[in-house]
Amino acid sequence: MNRLFNLALLLCIGAAVIASFNYLGIDLGELGGAGNLKQMGAYAQRFLSPDLSPGHLQAIGHGALETLAMSALGTLLAAVFGLLLALPAAGRYGWPLQSASRLVLNALRAVPELVWAALMVLAAGLGPNAGTLALALHTTGVLGRLFAEALENTPPEPADAIRLQGANTVWAFCYGTLPNLLPQLLAYILYRWENNIRMASVLGFVGAGGLGQMLYVSLSLFQEAQASTVILAMLLLVLAVDTLSSWSRQRWVKA
Amino acid sequence: MLTSDTRDPAALPRLLLTLLALALLWPGIRFSELDLRVLVASDSQSEMGRFVSAFWPPAHGDEFIQLLLQATLQTLAIATAGMALALLLAVPAGLLASRALSLSAASRAGHPSYWGQLLRWPIRGLLIFLRSVPEIVWALLFVRAVGLGPTAGVLAIAITYSGMLGKVYAEIFESVDQRPVHALLQSGSGRLAAFCYGILPNVAAELLSYTVYRWECAIRASVVMGFVGAGGLGQQMDLSLRMFAGGEVASLLLTFLVLVLLADQLSRLLRWRLT
Q1: pTM of the model as a whole
Q2: Helix, strand, or coil (residue B182)
Q3: Is residue A222 pLDDT above 60, yes or no?
Q4: Closest residue in chain B to residue A124, using alpha carbons only
Q5: Distance, in angstroms, between A129 CA and closest chain B CA?
Q6: Å from B133 to nearest chain A CA?
Q7: Among A114, A120, A221, A242, which would you mutate to test the B interface (most chain B Cβ atoms within 10 Å of its Cβ)?
Q8: Domains in chain A and their CATH numbers?
Q9: Residue B252's closest CA among B60, B106, B2?
Q10: What is the ipTM of this complex?
């Protein structure tokens, strides 16, 4: 019986794959046809000579800095607001506030960054400000939830001890809870920063500044040489951030 | 004698570190043109307010529901077809890139010879290249190469996900006990047979659950890719946003949330049944 069910499940998966190719009407034979491949090859070839002129490189440098700043500030804002929302979401101020802040966090998290960016471009106008706000909003949802879980799992005894000595709640939180929590919070923030720098470089597609906007514009103008330099810059940026964050993780989080 | 000290002994270094961080962040604030005031400024607030107030009620005309259904099906189909194509490339690439099937490693305690490592590098490099360009960039490129529509989305998912799946598959093959496959290889079996009987039984569950998880990610990615014209819910959302049709945006967002929730449940069911 169990075997039969699994077999039926596998057949369903196969049928779903075939049905989706049929539904989309993708003709792989035609797509791989000689004429089409030649056209695509010619298009790809135009990317092979990246534009390395100093003027363009300078523009790319500016775009990369913009992307970096967007992702860093977006993550930082999200860390601050996430912590503020995580305190009620961890159940510290009673259940009405807990469920309300959880609802807010879930709503923030459920909408993807790119959709937030499209909405923020309407509110804040074109440019990196919209991208920063979009990243901050989505990441607040993610970090808030992670922080709330971390808060629930920290031992309450140190904070209780400080409070029993006569300190108020703020000091108890700062010196009793936060030191235990900090490595975990830092790890989450670094992880999200890594994600956000990838997102920041593509948020520009909806007009939110950074390298993405340059790529979108130069592809729309059929300047493939310039576009390929932007793609190279994106790859370098992602690699650099990966190295930096893995280094800082070893340096600060594990210690 | 113990004296009580109410000062924080680490206050000064902490203050200095904070000041240093702020000094580093200052250029960042200028570059990102951060201006939180736009969120509370009256004109942008009234603009946003008008847009958001149109969210209720979500659009539910017959024609729009039909459109919504088609876009949802298209999104699902893009994710499924993209994953199927990605598997076509990822499985052979994973087999080629994995050290687990190295003949020289079988007799050298798991470390392949110099040549064995060198020959695997091109495949690894290809996989790195495929996955390090974000899928939405691939989608943007393919929209120019093959035109607007779901084909670009399918190809973009196929390329990025084959890079990710190939790398993860190769690592999963290496992560299990290597002794069965080494024994098979040293007693003269072919590599494919050694893989089927020495590795596959150990890794099947992990492969399946990772693949299903990636399918779930592909659904989310295919929604986002629609924003650059690769079909599905995202393209519809882009259109509605440009027309400031708040009600339509609201029902598209709701559909997206329901779709993600359902995909989450389905992938949980599949993982539970098949692993």
Answers
A1: 0.82
A2: helix
A3: yes
A4: B38
A5: 5
A6: 7
A7: A114
A8: 59-253 (1.10.3720.10)
A9: B60
A10: 0.79
